[in-house]
Amino acid sequence: MDRQLGRILISREEIAARVAELGEAIGRDYAGRAPLLVGVLKGAVVFTADLLRAIPLPAAMDFMAVSSYGSGTRSSGVVRLTADLSLSIEGRDVIIVEDVIDSGRTISYLRRNLATRHPKSLALCVLLDKVSRREVDVDVDYVGFVIPDDFVVGYGLDYDGWHRNLADLAVLEAVARR
Ligand code: PRP
Questions:
Q1: DSSP label of 25
Q2: Residue 94 · residue 38 · CB < 8 Å
Q3: Cα–Cα nearest to 160, from 81, 97, 73, 93
Q4: In which element (H, E) is residue 145 found?
Q5: Residue 148 near residue 132, CB atoms below 8 Å
Q6: How many angstroms separate the alpha carbon of residue 37 from the centre of ligand 1?
Q7: Is the CB of 102 within 6 Å of ligand 1?
């Protein structure tokens, strides 16, 4: 099977409006504090950058990277830290920023990992939640959109490294080879 770009699932305008709402909500909830956004490479880079600018508070940003082993477009559940934060999060109000939650295994691992570093608080903000795919219970504090189990690319999300630069979120469709 090859894959080709299909319909737009969420337009750039819808994304921008929702990111603005999430930033305002975080601004209200963290009033008087200075949250640290921890973006998860690579998919969450675009969302993290936009969310940071939508938060009307002093806010900081750092990144970490994880990889999950396994088959192609599905994550396997075995998660490994491949790049760590550059800052200490001890005593900080940390918000993990993810592009998508599927099985929940990546974020479950990250929450456990970051909790051991004694942040003052630890929350999770995810742009896309594939609730129907969940295998591990995850508490999500801020959700952009609940989406069906489509293969989605754009706005940071990739297929084999490509399509991250699309401004909209589009469905990648399987097409039969001729
Ligand atoms: C995606 C996404 C999450 C994870 C979610 O990352 O960014 O980290 O999969 O899946 P899960 O809930 O089943 O664990 P991906 O492996 O595609 O890497 P990338 O962000 O570098 O594109």
A1: H
A2: yes
A3: 73
A4: strand 142-146
A5: yes
A6: 17
A7: yes
- Among 129, 126, 57, which residue's Cα sits nearest to residue 93? 57
Place of tokens 């993810």: 98
Tokens 């490479």 sit at which residue? 41
Backbone angles phi, psi at 143, to 5 degrees: -120, 130
Say if ligand 1 is within 6 A of residue 50 CB: no
44: three-class secondary structure by DSSP:
coil
Cα–ligand 1 centroid distance for 84 (angstroms): 16
Give the global pTM: 0.94
pLDDT tens over the chain, length 178 residues: 688 999 999 999 999 999 999 999 999 999 999 999 999 999 999 999 999 999 999 999 999 999 876 555 555 668 899 999 999 999 999 999 999 999 999 999 999 999 999 999 999 999 999 999 999 999 999 999 999 999 999 999 999 999 999 999 999 998 877 6
Sheet holding 142-146, edge to edge: 78-83, 60-69, 36-41, 93-101, 121-129, 142-146
Q: Which ligand 1 atom sits nearest the alpha carbon of residue 75?
A: 13
Planar angle of CA 22, 27, 33, nearest 5 degrees: 140
Q: Is the peptide bond before 120 cis (omega within 30 degrees of 0)?
A: no
- Which residues, including other chains, have CB under 8 Å from residue 2's CB and lie 6 or more apart? 174, 175, 177
